[in-house]
């Protein structure tokens, strides 16, 4: 097949979270070569007319969609699969509708809660017009000791670190307004779930449908007692930070954890089905000391760099990188009404 690897345009001075998409594109391209496909890369910025013209001039059989933002705005991510739908070009990963729902964290939480899945309650949002999406689930008994303030639209843990934690009563409008600019303009507060953190990767094309890859837990064992167990921006992208070097993932669990792991896997599959996902995804959980899991986020286009968590889970399952890419492609080829011309 002829495949276009579509990714967001990356500036020369881009931050590590933006530049990483080039690593993903290179890895996917190498895998496509191994699989015998022709491929090219195409960068995507705010000028979608340019992208549409390119795809019409050199029509691919399929687009491998790696776009994570447009013009630096995560809130625009769903426009890319919507464009591909309009052009009638099959593409990998989540459909536009699921991308839109999950790119807005408040909307994603509301959707999951409607499906009966556990999410942390939301205390407040900024600006106030988001209030209709803000309150999800039952409020905890009494105020938790810590609240976390998050961006509504931006991902890759943009603006998320222990500095975004607020102690005491739930953050009010003034607190959220003061933090909004650093979080992309729209933000919300939810209880910080003390406890354990898990990443559950799901890949299409298993024997019985989407397959849960080996679950991973973030190991906070080297954190000092007074440091919040949080996977923020520094842990993911700042190679000089303490967090980057002291948040390894682990895949081995004692028998006492087996029931919890099964529950997390089941919930990840339920989230996949509730959102109508395709290709691949990652579901992030926190589990409180009582063993209650909460879905923090469903990432419909998680990082698939060879050194990232999704690839690590696939390796743990015995899948090489080309095999993962092949299954993502096959999910497009076998989707009803979306089969490209060979």
How many structural domains?
A: 3
Q: In the CATH hierarchy, what is the architecture of the largest domain at level 2?
A: 2-Layer Sandwich
User: Outline, from the CA principal axes?
Assistant: globular
List how many beta strands DSSP finds: 13
CATH topology of the largest domain: D-amino Acid Aminotransferase, Chain A, domain 1
User: What fraction strand?
Assistant: 15-25%
Could you name the ranges where pLDDT drops below 50 across 5 or more consecutive residues?
none
What is the number of helical segments per DSSP (H or I, 4+ residues)?
12
List the helices and strands and how they pair.
Layout lengths: L1 E7 L7 H19 L3 E7 L3 H10 L4 E4 L13 H9 L8 H8 L1 H10 L9 E3 L4 H4 L11 E6 L13 E3 L5 H8 L6 E5 L4 E11 L2 E4 L3 E3 L14 H5 L4 H4 L3 E2 L7 H18 L4 E8 L5 E7 L9 H8 L4 H13 L9
Parallel strand pairs: 1-2, 1-3
Antiparallel strand pairs: 4-7, 5-6, 5-7, 8-9, 8-10, 8-12, 10-11, 12-13
Helix pairs in contact: 1-12, 3-4
Describe this structure in words.
By secondary structure, the chain is an alpha+beta fold. It folds into three domains: 2-92, 3-Layer(aba) Sandwich (Rossmann fold); 121-191, no CATH class; 194-333, D-amino Acid Aminotransferase, Chain A, domain 1. Helices cover 34% and strands 20% of the residues. It has helices at 16-34, 48-57, 79-87, 96-103, 105-114, 131-134, 173-180, 233-237, 242-245, 258-275, 309-316, 321-333, and strands spanning 2-8, 38-44, 62-65, 124-126, 146-151, 165-167, 187-191, 196-206, 209-212, 216-218, 249-250, 280-287, 293-299. The longest helix is centred in the N-terminal third of the chain and has 19 residues, at 16-34. The chain is globular. The model has no long low-confidence stretch (mean pLDDT 90).
